[in-house]
Design goal:
5 strands, 2 domains, elongated, 246 residues, Beta-Lactamase, disordered C terminus
Amino acid sequence: MGDERALASWLLAERRAIEAALARALGARRPAAASAEAEALRRLRSYAVAALVHGAQASPALDGVAAEPARVEPLLRAWLDACAEVAGSRAAAVRAALEPALARFAHALRGSEGARRAGGVPVRSSRRAVPAAIDRVADPFLAIETDTGRIADANPAAAALLGARREEIVGRSAFDFVPEACREALWSELDAVAEAGEARRFATRLCAPDGRPIALDARATRWSTRQRTLALLVARPTDEGDAPLA
């Protein structure tokens, strides 16, 4: 399999294949895209790459993960099995390389504040997540936390698009405004922004609180601080026929 950096690159390149193998293995047990268990799996994927590149000094980012370890740990093993399946003849080497990261992640999850208060809600900050200059952006703009899916910031155009005040959408899950059929595809786009640093352009839908569907042409880029990684999403409403929607 090569060195650990090569394995990290392989995990990123094969992300979709691993997700597909995991979905097949879990079947009906697959967690919903916006669930705490699915969030923990996304954190594991990001941590596994960081641990391979940086070694034991990399720490799992578990802020805001309110998942019960007993429900998550079987999913972590299933993810490792999916990696091994995709690796084929290199399965044993992949397992051996990823086992330490998996064990550290599971240990950190068991001791996390979120595990102790599973179902708790993190305290919101009143500070702007990104510079207030976004308010002058004409197109709808959302800053979305890539690990939780929460809306960290929004401009007036985004609030107007959704027919709500900015204060009513900041702090909520972006997936509260995304139809169920589009959620998995949007999570995949956020993962690509967070894990590979890719600038993305894609079509998706939102759903306003009044039930009005909104077709969008979206562009997303990564913006990172020491505390978190955001997907900066600029969206332009389109006609339904302009592009195939995720």
